[in-house]
Amino acid sequence: MWVYPEIDPIALQLGPLSIHWYGLMYVVSFAAVWALAHRRRAALGLTGEQIQDLIFYAALGVVLGGRFGYALFYHFDRVLAEPLWIFKVWEGGMSFHGGLLGVLLALLLFVRRYTLSAAQHSGLQHPFWRLSDFIAPLVPIGLGAGRIGNFIGGELWGRPTDLPWGMVFPHVDALARHPSQLYQATLEGLGLFVLLHWYQSHPRPAGAVSGVFLLGYASARFVAEFARQPDAHLGLLMMGLSMGQILTLPMFLVGAWLLQQAYRR
Question: Where does a 1,2-diacyl-sn-glycero-3-phospho-(1'-sn-glycerol) bind (predicted)?
């Protein structure tokens, strides 16, 4: 049994400005995504300026979609009672599923604004799905960094366990719990990153990499949620599943459909 090391969630204090580890993980992940996207931009014929705009669009989609998704999926009753609460971002709360929808909308806007040079010069078909396939292998970087940020912040802890690597979170209770943040960082971050980069290393039909991403993330999140403590105000819902697991079910179905359609084309 391990004891959670009390880590100060504030990484740096600059006068009245507090820089939290969780926010720092966002900065690190966006920087890593930007660097890797620049290395791979020739695959779609994107310019350096277009990559910068793409990352900016995606970042807005993550932040806005993540916040709106958290409010609607996890605190819909509070939104109905206090609609302006959704804009109180300083109180925290982000949803991956909402962030995913935000990124998809951002990609649609990006494709409408730019005509990809690769599509112009080589007759590239399905530019939206090609762009989605380009972005998908980059997403696990942010997922892994975010879960490490959750661990450092001592939040989103796991369910009680008697396994030898169980961890006591003293700020929660005296029970040994799954370090579920590290499980998710490994499955949704490192594992999914390796899978997608192996899969996209060979030519694939448009939309296939995106389909594998949806299948891979949905599977990893569904399994990891069995070790994660459900949200206190929601608990377990239908069939004993958490909200996170329920939200992964349509992702899995869409991923399977997208992969099937990609290879049919």
Answer: 147
